[in-house]
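Review this chain:
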Amino acid sequence: MRSGTQIVTVALVIAVCLGGLSATAVADDGETDVEKIGDVDIEIEDNEYHIDGAEITGDGLPSVTIEERTHTVDSLSIQTDGLTVDYGDTTYYVCQLDITVEDVEITLSDISIGEE
């Protein structure tokens, strides 16, 4: 069974990946409405990420505080069909998304997770 911190780490990696996707999509096209994007393959390798002072709240979340912890994601692969990303006035629809993460180090500092 995975610990809560490992699950949070994977969730943060996914958030970073999707944040990069939405930023790339917005940079490519400034129009509003719905933009259809074909298949997207994202590979993240040999990187270090530092996430400091984040507060994550939502219904049903466990209460977790992380003072400082570093995790290494050796290999993670995520595939999804049909992903939508809303950014500003534009909705981006990705037909298929493949994310591969290898040898990525994530340092979490002063993270607070809990219910709203």
Observations:
- The first strand starts at residue 33 and ends at 52.
- The helical segments are 4-28.
